[in-house]
Amino acid sequence: MTDFAQIKYDVADGIATITLHRPEKMNAYTRVMMQEMIDAFDLVDGDDDVRAVIVTGHGEKAFCAGADLTPDDGGQVFSSGDEVADLSDPRGRDSGGRMTLRIFQCKKPVIGAINGVAVGVGATMQLPMDFRLASKTARYGFVFARRGIVPEAASSWFLPRLVGMQQAMEWCMTGRVFDAQEALDGGLVRSLHEPGELLDAARALAREIADNTAPVSVAMTRAMLWRLSAANHPMEAHKIDSRAIYRRSRSGDAKEGIASFLKKRDPVYPDRVSADMPDFYPWWDKAEYS
């Protein structure tokens, strides 16, 4: 286990678990937590033995009660606190967005196990996760308009893609807190669970991915679905699909996938995310694909 101050990071049987851990503050978000979350996702991506990551909160009361607004503990959680004349200055960047963008860039599947209250950044930090499972006692709130600010953590990009524009508008414009059933009905979460069964359900989903799929294929699938669903034309997806199918069909993973299927045995995929991503990845950083 790696030591952190405001989160816990554990790896067992190929599954990493990141636990927000400020029990005295309902796991409220700070800049320290932001940096530790970023560092934890760096560990996830750097460890080929990690096949999936679960993010949850300590206890059954709160996943994350939003940003810690008390001066002693949170202080200027939304930015560095420095006065800036130029709004493009990196010191003015939203700390929630820095974290969600790091989650977005992750190469492993990310599963949120939302164990309780999740408001403000506690709600928006979940949006770049691939699955959100919630306790039946969870409560959500995109409360920014009720605090005199606006949605952060790049949620104006993520939320409408997950739940549609009308639902995103309603939740953000009213700023009201709503229950887990409404979150499920609105498409924000995948499933609801009894509090004592939530982590087991998240681990079962992580296990299904880890035991049956090729890690490089999962990393590519995650990047393709998140990025290409927002492309301006399906031809952009076709370009990347074509390159990815061509490269992956000639990989050791594809040979193993076919052999294990024909021999009716569990697959043992040889390729690793750290070394065997296709040569055109990350395509979004390359001029020929822009």
Q: What can you see in these coordinates?
A:
With 290 residues, the chain is α/β, with parallel strands linked by helices. The chain folds into 2 domains: 7-209, 2-enoyl-CoA Hydratase, Chain A, domain 1 (Alpha-Beta Complex), CATH 3.90.226; 214-289, Lyase 2-enoyl-coa Hydratase, Chain  A, domain 2 (Orthogonal Bundle), CATH 1.10.12. The chain contains 10 helices and 10 strands. The strands form 2 sheets. It has a 6-stranded mixed β-sheet, sandwiched between helices. Strands 4-6-8-9 form a 4-stranded mixed β-sheet. Helix 1 (31-46) links the parallel strand 2 and strand 3 (52-57). The termini are far apart. The relative contact order is 0.11. The mean pLDDT is 94.
CATH-defined architecture of the largest domain: Alpha-Beta Complex
**In the CATH scheme, what's the topology name of the largest domain?**
2-enoyl-CoA Hydratase, Chain A, domain 1
What is the level 1 CATH name of the largest domain? Alpha Beta
Give helix % range: 25-40%
Strand tally: 10
Order of helices and strands: EEHEEHEEHEEHHEHEHHHH
Question: Structural class of the helices, strands and pairings?
Answer: alpha/beta
C-alpha Rg (nearest Å): 20 Å
How would you sum up the global shape? globular
The profile of the biggest β sheet is: 6 strands, mixed
Q: Treating each run of at least 4 consecutive H or I residues as one helix, how many helices?
A: 10
Alpha carbon gap, first and last residue: 40 Å
Strand content: 5-15%
How many individual domains? 2
Superfamily at the CATH H level of the largest domain? 2-enoyl-CoA Hydratase, Chain A, domain 1
Unreliable residue stretches: none
Strand order of the largest sheet: 1-2-3-5-7-10
Average pLDDT figure = 94
